[in-house]
Fold this sequence. Notes:
Number of helices: 15
Order of helices and strands: HHHHHHHHHHHHHHH
Radius of gyration: 23 Å
Shape: globular
Number of strands: 0
Mean pLDDT: 87
Distance between the termini: 16 Å
Structural class: mainly alpha
Amino acid sequence: MPFRAAHRGAVGTGRSGFALRALALLYIALLLGAPVAMVFYRAFEPGLAAMWESITEPNALRAFWLTIICVGVAVPLNTIFGVTTALYIVRGRGRLRRVLDSIIDLPFAISPVVVGLALILVYGQNGWFGEQLTSVGLQVIFSLPGMILATTFVSLPFVAREVIPVLREIGDEQEQAARVLGAGDWQTFWRVTLPSIRWGVGYGIVLTTARALGEFGAVAVVSGKIIGETETATLLVENRFTQFDVAGAYAASVVLAVAALIVILSMTLLQRRTNTEEQLEHGD
């Protein structure tokens, strides 16, 4: 019997395996399942009509639309940045790529609230570039550009961190062969590199979308939380909760939860597709 099958049988059919699975399911149920279920229950408790009215009133629609704009701008920017940065770190030369590889995870280490304060210090009215931006009529802080900047910053590393290990695993033999056959840099990237890293890029896009959808701290600082103007979906939830509109807060939360479930489903499908292709490549 192959070692993997024997190992799986030893862990999966014994009492210890059953206990581990039960403990994991109990942990997930208490930590994730129960709170999410309660959100859905409280959202639908006043009735479907009341919930629909809550999520379709003008301020809520404006908040959802601002969230879509922030995600719609941040995800493409971070996808382009992530792919080019990963290519430079893995395929490039020079000391700068090591520095870049080290600092690319900065958004993971810094609190989003600190990010928001830093953006105010740089782009605010009294910041480094505040006077110049104001002179050309561009307001960054307490408006949509600042919210997009904050969302882009906190979701920056995901695509790069998914693509870098894929590039290292596939190596550059096929790219060198394409160049020997006369392909240019763009042809090599489009026809050889990109098809090889497409699932890594897709997985990074899904993670970036999930992070951008749920961003709160940095956007809260730079937006000013102006109701109906600079309020995203997460800020709408927080504002309604502090205004004792609990049912409205749960209703908006359900919209975000459904979006998150769609993202999780996308991740699952991508993982399954990636595993299938890996099995086909290895002949399993």
